[in-house]
Structures are given as structure tokens and as C-alpha cells.
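Technical note accompanying the year-one report. For the benefit of new consortium partners, we illustrate the data format agreed upon in the data management plan: each record pairs a sequence with a C-alpha cell string. No post-processing was applied to the example shown here.
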Amino acid sequence: MATRRTRPQELDAEHRNALPDATFAFPRVRKEPLTDAAHVRNAIARFDQVRDVTDRERDEAFRRIERAAHKFGVQMTESRWQELGKPSATKKSSDKPRTPTKAELAASPRAQRSKAELYAEARRRHVKGRSTMTKDALLRVLQRG
């Protein structure tokens, strides 16, 4: 039987199941194993994605992650678990322009125009790939500006 090839930091199901509960940041739900530096960094990045845990469990998990980070030489800038998983001041998700919903696109004045009219406007604006776009795609491209 062939075995699945894994990277050194990757745990397959058999090895993960064999780990003791104390190895996990969240032992009750067996989430975020802290077996090496890569897994510690992953636990920090995904901390806020763990579901069905109490604030007390998060507090304990943060302490476990801090200990593991120290053990494996991973630097942590956060001092409280509430800071994990939040966008930093320089990286705000609200900085990216939001894609308009279909309802917003349908309500726009351009939505009332035919595909041929939208195509002509895209041609005037030198939009690349316009010949293969659907009406919705043309609306989105023209909406962006």
C-alpha cells in the first residue's frame, strides 16, 4: 500500500489522532496542534476561526500558543487573544473595494442598457477581454470604473 507523502510540518490523520490532547491549543475540540513552529504560526493565524469554544478556553489556548511560540522560536506581537485574527492597522479588509451585489448592479442605470450598448462602452474604454464577457461581467467591469 502506498503512503501519502507529506511535508515535514504536515500531519496526516493517523499522526494527528495519535497526539495527546495536551498538544492542541484547544484540547476539548482537538483544534490547532502545536507540534512545531509552522503549526504554531498557523494556530496564531487561525485562532479566531475556531468555533464552539468559550472565552475561557480561548484564554487557555492563547497561553498554550504563547508557550509553544517561545519553545519553537516564533515571535508573537499580540499580548491578548482578542488581538489574534484581527486585521492590522495597515491591512484593513475595508480598504479593498467591495464587489457590487447583483441587486445593486440591476438597480444601476447601466443595467437597463442592452449588452450591445455595454459592449460599445467597454470598447470605448479599451476593456480587455470584453468580447467573451457576459452582460453581468460587462456591468461589473464598467461599474468599477
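Partners are asked to follow this layout when depositing records. The longest helix spans residues 55-72.
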